Amino acid sequence: MSETFPASSALDEEVARAELYGLLARLWYAAPDAGLLEAFQVAPTEAPAAGAFLEEPWRQLVGIARDTSVAAAHDEYDALFGGIGKPDIFLFGSHYLSGFLNDKPLVQLRHDLDRLGLARTEATYETEDHIACLFEVMRYLIAGDDVAVANLTQQQAIFSKHIQPFLPALCDAVAQHPKARFYAALAVFTRAFGEVEAQAFDMMA
């Protein structure tokens, strides 16, 4: 997973989008480590992607990250998404779209990724419908060098079919969980960012 941190809202908009997807992928894949929490200490409090709608949830996320320890972040991640047996919250699209893990939505996603020449690496343990994996796909579709694959049309197709339909439900589940603090703030920001992306893609239609 990418660990690139958005440095400034003055960055080119597409670069900022790609970096933000990379950051979200990293944070949803695993609890932030010391280096990432240190990056939040000096992160700008203005949103790292265009849109005033993101300013307040980003400011809240940065503030909570600055007050979160590595141990607390890891404990929270494990309490929400880990543990033995069924986790409190699933991070997989199939769970929200069909009610089952490894179900038809995952098969459809794999078909679409295969069509784009994309596949899960051996280093990635989670299935492709894990929200972090989907965000990493979006990062590539924005920043990749192959313009036949990395373009707005493919971004819209993947986002509208495989992310947008379940992202609000996932974020709401995290934001409302009594054990969520850092991840509650991350969920609120992620939901807001998803809404901005959805609006932008709708304008393309």
Give a structural overview.
- The protein is mainly alpha-helical and 205 residues long.
- The chain is built from 10 helices and no strands.
- The protein has helices spanning 13-29, 34-41, 55-66, 70-81, 93-97, 104-115, 131-143, 152-163, 167-175, 182-204.
- Helix 2 (34-41) crosses helix 3.
- It is globular.
- The protein starts with 12 loop residues before the first helix and ends with a helix.
- 36% of the residues are buried.
Structural class designation:
mainly alpha
Name the helix and strand elements from N-terminus to C-terminus, one letter apiece: HHHHHHHHHH
Q: Whole-Å distance between the termini?
A: 31 Å
List low-pLDDT spans: 7-11
Secondary structure: number of strands: 0
Helix content: 55-70%
What's the overall average pLDDT, rounded?
91
What's the Cα radius of gyration? Answer: 16 Å
What is the number of helices? 10
Beta-strand share of residues: under 5%
Overall 3D shape: globular
Largest sheet: none
InterPro entries: DMSO/NO3_reduct_chaperone (IPR020945), TorD-like_sf (IPR036411), TorD/DmsD_chaperones (IPR050289)
Protein name: TorA maturation chaperone TorD
Keywords: Chaperone
Organism: Variovorax boronicumulans
